[in-house]
Structures are given as structure tokens and as C-alpha cells.
Amino acid sequence: MSAPVALAKRWAPEIALVVILLILPLVLPYIDGTYDIANRILDWGLFGLGFDLLFGFTGLLSFGQAAFYGAGGFVAAYILVAPFTNNAVVALIGGTVAASIFGVIIGYLSLRRTGIYFAMLTLAFGEMFFFLDISPLARWTGGENGVAGVPEPHLGFGIFSIDINDPGGLYWLLVVVFVLGFWLARRIVASPFGAVLRAIRENGARVAAVGHDVPKYKLTVFVIAAAYAGLAGGLLGLLQGYMPPDAFYLDTSGQLVVQTIIGGAGTLIGPLVGATVWLYLYTLLQNIAGIGAWWKMILGVIFVVLVTVFRRGLCGGTLLLWRRPVARPALEPVAETAVGEQARVAAEPRRSTQRPPPTGPIVLATRNLSKRYGGLTAVDDVSFELREGEIRAVIGPNGAGKSTFFNMLANVIPPSSGTIEFKGRNITGLGATMVCQRGISKSFQINQIFPSLTVRENLRIAVLARAYGKFHPAMLRAVDRDATVNAGIDAAAASVQLAKRLDTPAVELAYGEKRRLEIGLALATRPQILLLDEPTAGMSPVERADTVRLLRSIASGVTIVIVEHDMDVVFGLADRITVLFNGRKIAEDVPDAIQANPDVRAAYLGSQAAHEPA
Amino acid sequence: MISWPLFFSQVFNGLTLGALLVLVAMGLTIIFGTLGVVNFAHGALYAVGAYAGFVTYEYTGSFVAAMAAGAIFLLVVGVVIERGLIRLYYQRPPEDQILVTFGITIVLVEAIRAIFGGLARNIPAPSWAAGIVNLRVTLYPTYRIDVLAIVGASLVLLYFVLYRTRLGLIVRAGIEDQLMVNILGINVTRTFLTVFGLGAMAAGFAGVINAPIVTVTPDMGADILVQSFVVVVIGGVGSFWGAVVGGLIAGEILSLTAMIQPAYSQVMLFAVMALVLILRPQGLFGVEGRQ
Amino acid sequence: MSLLEVDAINTYYGEAHALFDVSMHIEPHEVVALLGRNGAGKTTTLKTMMGVMAPKSGAIRFNGQAIGGLPPYKIARLGLQLVPEERRIIGGLTVEENIVLAGLSEAKPWPPQRVYDMFPRLGERRRNRGRELSGGEQQMLAIARALVREPQLILLDEPFEGLAPLIVQDLLGICRRLADEGRTIIIVEQNVEAALSLARRCYILNNGHMVYEGTPADLRRERDFMHRHLGI
């Protein structure tokens, strides 16, 4: 499409918003509206922009946003009433900064937990702020009376200033602030930072595993939400000429949540729409005799229905992902039975890989690595060396300690004793995120992808970590126009044969394609060492053969460690095999030698003295 | 200067408040532990119980009838909510459960407000419990002592149900391993119904017996909700003794801090909860890793 | 009509295809071993039989009645019982409570004393909580729990895993006793020798495909085949 049209498309939401808000004053008298109502709605909308970034996009449900709303509001009001200045701009900035500082503190404490406990922590802190406001700090906050006498806004910008002394003027002030806030939020969403946030909502663990510092991202968006809340709180005081204690109420936090859900979480404009619905439903129902008192209950019912049936509210419109009639993932033709029959035929000798033996430098080594859980030793004194360019398989019967050993290599769990060295440097206990940044990437047995994102967006998350490091709060750039990132995505997609599916939502991929995406995510971080955890899990024989071919094709330039049960896959790929049994390494050699090794044969068939005591 | 009578009075207040929190938290922790559902509607159920008791009292003049009504009405409400709504949420993420139970709160509380208005109501203490009792260390309202006794009796009953009956065995086993209970031939979902009903009943019953001490308003459940969450966090999810100990501790924190510095009593409670969540998330008696 | 008929079932973990057209049958009074490497689908097969997972296609019939897709508690009441891989003793309940729990939905369950007669060690520990038991004791309790329900078919999932050799010998003895009593058992085990010593027939699963059905004697004659599918 032509440049002007493309430009218009990018800016459509902002343009639409500005147009609506420009026209609104003309329409107000016909819809029984007043500037006051409009101002309140805009204030809630602003409050909600930050909350939507936190909840709608990052998935963090906070029930304590009122703490920041109130804090920002009271600090701003106090600045003006004390008075430290009569410049409302300074006061608003002061309030926003104060709210942000509280955001850092409360965010740091609350984000140490997730899910329910995070929600409860934010609720507790929100309530704490409320009680602090009412009583101990009443001298500054006016306690239950709030802070009265907030002057009409005098906006000083250095040389020139604007004085606002009517609701109409306030309306334009709020319009400007809201539109700016909306524009900024949209930029954040479209930025690399925003891409990571959305991925965190889908699968925070995978985001960390591909090398992002997830706690920092979460804290940053928490503070942003607090800042928006603080600014909205300050504006509330200006709106009313008075800062009320109910800014700190649990009800206020709750109202924000309800409005956001009703309007649509994850849409940025949802909270504004939700606030409109809330206020209009109230006004509408008040006028219907007999129902007036029930308006909030009806709102509650609507809310419950929306949460149960929809997830994205009025604006989002799409049903919960799992209810939506998703395009059925393409099914592979079932030609397996023929292959199954083949397997029953007398055993054929296995074809070993034809690759030359690895002679490069040692890139990964473990020394006396052990893991104990109470009295049980899962991994016992395993030393292991991996050469550059090698494909090493780690096998062993059940309970041999393979997964534990593998997870220690990936730095997912810390060893009880022993060390792991990557290119000569000790990486023990660094954690999966750091280790991924250094060059060791893991792909999971059960797909850990981002289902509602497209293949392109999936790969983008991994590429971002590689391109910009573990924390990159770039919030104003558009991520889809980043040439480096796009190149990285294309390369990763090509290497796992998903180049044609870049714009397909991951949830719609066939199972085999999802597995390829899973490997692609690990590859996209351009690792030097790739750890593959049962890459052929759940695959038909046809898919397994395809996967072996794929892995052979990516093996050049990358060192691979693969944990597998399927011996055909192991023999088709591995240069060398390490065998674990009861947590100990009992053999390490080329495949043919391992196959003939009597200890290994005995270990698998259990004919030697059964499992030794822990 | 704090006098001994005041001190002991506050200690007993803490016990009374704590006892009520124990009862409410017990319902919450059983629901949370067995069903895995965070019931943000628990405070609203408490309020509904108080109003059910109020209405019954207005009609019958009998406090005992009010108590019974509060309990039975809530049992029914709990079962209806579970069958109608909660069971749709068992597979959904915890945020969704919080949201829907929060929504149920709005519906219940606003329904109460619409029917009864926002003015405070009252159920007077029953005549058989009026007056003051001399506790040697302090003088104390008889009714509050009776509350301790009533709650104590309820807890004994609950303990009996949990530890000496088939249902209790299933509930305790189900809290730990729902699937295994299923494999052993027991229809666990039918138990969920009962569990939610029992939990709601505990909340509603607490609402009625607390009514003579506090005022009955539509929003009376909000504080209780938050405080009972604190109790569950401190005591540990799914633990009977956790709810008991946690409740008494919470009651004493609130009461004794109020004596020293009233402004900080609630803040203190939340500070303790935050501390527990950050340092020992499974609580005093909870099972490690159960999050 | 066999006691249990599994007819070309396909089970999935989400979208991961775990069992491919798996068929087997169990006759009354026989012990059948289900062998294979880990990841082969043995536990998945038992879970599908017990209703913990539902097959996407194919049928399972128990005493002629279709049970595919039924919830576990219904299947348990029809006469199957699973002794799961992780044992899954209810740690917070005492030994006796675990036994009583197992019998709640059974018309004529074993009284606890009968369990203690067969497993004296459990009798000594009857007041201990489940989590205080050793691995071997927990396995005994898990088996006892299944017996309480007088099942027609017992599914034993890796009963010897992670246990010391002496304990394994004890348990083998118990399993032999059960077999001698004429109980019908499917035993999943990675310890091939132990399993073959108990079984009258055996099946082998490889990557979710059934690749062998025969007797232990026949299997032992094909050593290369054994290594190929059970070893490496």
C-alpha cells in the first residue's frame, strides 16, 4: 500500500481518538453528558492505561493500584496546597515521581511472588497505604477529610503559562494528557520492550530461558503503571479542587479492574471504554424507576458474564483462546501403522552416523557434578567433556539421572557439588538466563512456545535477547521495523523450515511444526551449545525421521547435547554417547562401542543386581 | 500508661476477633486447599450470612434461629455458586478465579445494598448472653465470651468432621492428591460441592455471630475478606491448625497494636502478611511448594 | 471374551502422540508384563486403562464393557485398580487412614487387620503418617491399598523403581504370592528380568508402538531383538 495510507493505518487509533475527543464537546448536550463526567472518564482512562500495560499485556493482576493513584494525588495536592508552588505542572510531576518511587518499592516486594500471592501482596500494600493515609499521616493527608482547597490549575511552562478555571478548560487539559499517554502506551506496546511483556504473559519461564531478565521487565512495567496512576491521581485533585481519601480505597483498585475487563484488557482503550460503560450504566439505570439501586449489581453480573465467556471484553471481542473455534492444526497423514509393522520385523543393524570424530577444543565440561535431594543422590560425581562441533547423546534407563544432569547443564537447577565450565569459565549457578546469554540454549521436551503469538513474534523474543542483551527497555522504537531483529527472525525460521509460516499464530501450527518452533526458539539465540531435551517426544516415526534430518542440518556450527529415549534417533545423530545409570556415568564412547558394551546392556535389562541403594 | 484491665480486655478482644477470623479463614483455607480456588467472594458470603441472620431475627426474635438461618442459607448459596459458576473455573488460571469471585462479591454486596439500603443494621446480643462477666483480671462483655465458646464449639465440630468422618478423610486426602482419590473410586467433584458449601457456611455463620459486636452493613465483608486472607497466608493453605493459629495471631496483632497505636493496627497486620509471603510463602503449617 | 481388551488406542499428551494404535488383551488369572524403555508409553498405557487419560481413538473393554473415556473413579468401581509409578501415598494421612480411604467406595473392602496380616510391617507403622514411611513401605502400602478394593485387575506401574535390592526381593515375593493366588496383574517394569520372572506373557512397547507379544521364554530366545527394543 502507498506510504500515506500505511502511515494513516499506523496512526489510526490515535487519529480516531483525537477526532472523537474533539467532537465530544459538541455532542455532550445531546447525550446528557457534562464536562465533569467526561473528565472523570478520561481520568479513569489514564489510570487504566498503565494498568492495562501491567495486566492486559504482561498478565500481572494487581489489586493495589489505588496506592499509587492516591499517593500521586496527595503529593500533588499537598505541593499545591502547602503551597510549595502554584505551578500545577510541577505538582503533577512531583506526584508522578512520588508514585513511581512507591512503585519501585512495592513492585520489588510484590513481584517476588506470582499469581494469587502477587495479587494478595498488592492488595495488602494497597490497604496499608489506605490505613496510613487515614490515620498516621492524617496531618498531611487530611485523614478522612482529604485535602481541600486544591487551586485551579495554573500550568507554568517556563516563560508562558496557562490558567484553567472552568470544566471546559480542564477537559482540554485531560484530553491532551490522555492522548499523549495513549500515544506513549501504544509506542511501548509496539516496542521491543512491549514485545517481551506480551511474551511474559504467555510464558514467563520461556522468556527467561531465552535470555531475558524477566524480573527487571516486570518491575519496569509495574513502575510505569504506578506512574500513570500517580499522574491520574494528581489530575483528580485538580479536577475536583479536592483530593479525597477514597482514592486509596480497595474499591478504587477494584473499579479499575472491573472497568478494564469490561472495556477489554490488552487493548489500551479498554479502561476508557469500561469507565464510560460504568458511568453511563449508572446514569442510565438511575433514571429507570425501581432499578436505580440495582445498577451496580447489574454491572457486577455483566462483569461475571464477561469474565466467564469472554476474556477481552467489549473491545477485544474475541472469545477466550480455548473456546474459539481454532483453525484445526493440520494433521499428518497416518502412515505409521506400516512403519510400526516394520519395527516388529527382526532387528536390522543400526546405521551409525558417518561424521568424522570431533577434534575441536573442549567447550563444555563438568567436573564431579553431583545432585542430592535429601538422602537420594540423583547425579553422582559425573565428569564430562564436550568438544566443539560434537553431537553428544546422553542416555540411560529410567531414574538414571539424565534429566537432572541435563537441567544442571542448562543451569535450571544448581548442583549440590561440582562445577560446570563453559569454554574454560565457571558457569555453575549462573542461572538459565545468564547462561543463555553466554551461549548455551535449551529446547524443551514439552513445547514451551508462545501460543497466541505468531511464529515471527515467537522467534522475535529469542532474537531480541540475543541482539540486545538481557534487559533492553527500548520503549519508543517500533520492533517490527528493526532490521537486525528481522534478519535474525528470518534466519532462525529458515533453519527450522518455518519460513512459510511466519505469520501463523503458533497455536494453529501442526504438532511437528510446533516442535520445530520449539527448537527454532533455542536456535534463534544463536547458541554455541544447544541442549535438546527429547526433541522427538510425541512424534510419529515419520516426524522422527524428519527431525533427525533437521538436526543434522543445523549441526554444523553448533555443539549439541541431546537427551533421548529413541535409540534410532540417537544412533542416527550422535558422534558419541554418554550413558548414565543410577546417577553415575558408566560408559562414554562411540555408538557402536556403546551398543556392544556389556555394562550398558545389563543396565538396561536390569540383569545385574537391581538398583543400588541411594 | 496501659492498665492491666485494659490490657487483658484487649487480649480477650484479640481472642474474640481471632476466633471469628479462624472461623472465616477455615472456610477459605478448605476451599483454597481442596478446590484450589481463591475465593474473593468470601467476605461477601460473610455479609450475606449477617443479613440472613438479621432478617430471621426480625421475623422470629430468636437469635438461635438467626444463627441457624445464617448457616443454612449460606450452605445453599455456596452450593449454588459452586455448581453454577465456580466449577467452570477449575481448569482456568488463578487470575480468572480471582476475577470471577470478585465479580460475585460485587453482585452479592450490591444486591444487599439494593434490598436493605446502606444504613447500618443491628442484631442485638441475645438475652441469654447480655451483660458483663467478671474475669478477675478484667470485666468483659458476656456475649463476647459466648462468641469464643460458640466458635470453639464450631471448630470442635469441624475438627470432628474433618478428622473422624468419611467426608473429612476424603477432603483431607483431596487437598493433597485429588487424582489419587479419584483413582481410588471416589467421585471427588461431588465433594467439591460439599466443601464449597461448608466453607460458605462457616463464613455466613461467622457473619451472624459477629453481628451483635459490629454493625451490619453491606460492606462489612471487605475488611474480613482481606484479614482472612492474611490468616490463610500466615497459617498455611489447606491447614486446619494453620487457620486456628493464624487466626488467633492475627486477632492479637490487631487488638494489641490497636491498644498501643490504633492507627497502625491494620498496617501491622499487612506488614506481617507481606513478611510471611516474602520469607516463608507456605505459611506456618503449609506444605512447601504448595503455591 | 478377555478380561481386558485394548483395541488400537491412540493417546495424546496435548498434541504429542504417545500411543499409536496400541492393542493388547489380558485374560483372567494371568500376569502380563508390559516392557519397554522409558518414554515408550508404558505408563501412558496404564493411565489410559485407568481413565486418567482418555484415548482419542480406539476402544478399551473391561468384561465386555466399554470404559474408554470414563473417569477413573467409575473404572475403579468396575474392578480395575492402579498402583501408580510414584506410589502417591497420601502423606498427611496415617497408614490406617490410607487403607480406610481406599475402601470407602468398595462394598466389601479388606479391613485394616487383613492388610496387616499380609504386610506386618504396615501393621507396626499403622499410626505413622504416610510421609514418614520409607520407599519400600510406601510401595507396600500402595499395593495394599489396591488389594483393599478386591480388584479384578491390578495395574502395577514400576513397583521396583528406586528401591534397594533387598526391598525389591521382598516385593517380588509379594508379587509372586499375588500371582500364585490367581490374581490378574499387568506389571510395567524396566527391570526386565524381574518382570519376566513373574509373567506368563509379555508385550513390548517402543516409541508408542506395540512391537512384540509373546511369552518370556520366546523373548529370551531373541536376545538381539530384546536389546534392540529394551536396551540400545
Describe the structure.
The complex is a heterotrimer of chains A (614), B (291) and C (232). Chain A is of the alpha/beta class. In chain A, 54% of the residues lie in helices and 12% in strands. Chain A has 23 helices and 14 strands. Chain A has helices at 3-27, 35-57, 66-81, 88-110, 115-134, 138-141, 167-190, 192-209, 214-240, 250-263, 270-286, 295-309, 313-316, 336-344, 402-409, 432-438, 455-468, 483-495, 511-523, 541-554, 567-573, 591-596, 598-605; strands spanning 147-148, 154-157, 160-163, 242-243, 362-373, 376-387, 391-395, 417-422, 425-426, 440-443, 529-533, 559-563, 576-581, 584-589. In chain A, a hairpin with a 2-residue loop joins strand 8 (417-422) and strand 9 (425-426). The N and C termini of chain A lie far apart (68 Å). Chain B has a domain at 22-221. Helices cover 73% and strands 2% of the residues of chain B. In chain B, helix 2 (42-60) packs antiparallel against helix 3 (63-84). Chain C has 232 residues and is α/β, with parallel strands linked by helices. Chain C has 10 helices and 10 strands. In chain C, helix 3 runs parallel beside helix 6 (135-148). Classes of the chains: A alpha/beta (614), B mainly alpha (291), C alpha/beta (232). Chains in contact: A-B, A-C, B-C. The A-C interface holds A 329, 336-337, 339-340, 343-344, 346-347, 376, 395, 397-399, 446-447, 511, 514, 534, 537-541, 544, 565-567, 570, 594-595, 600-601, 604-607, 609-614 and C 12-18, 20-21, 37-40, 158, 160-165, 168, 189-194, 206-207, 209-212, 222, 224-232.
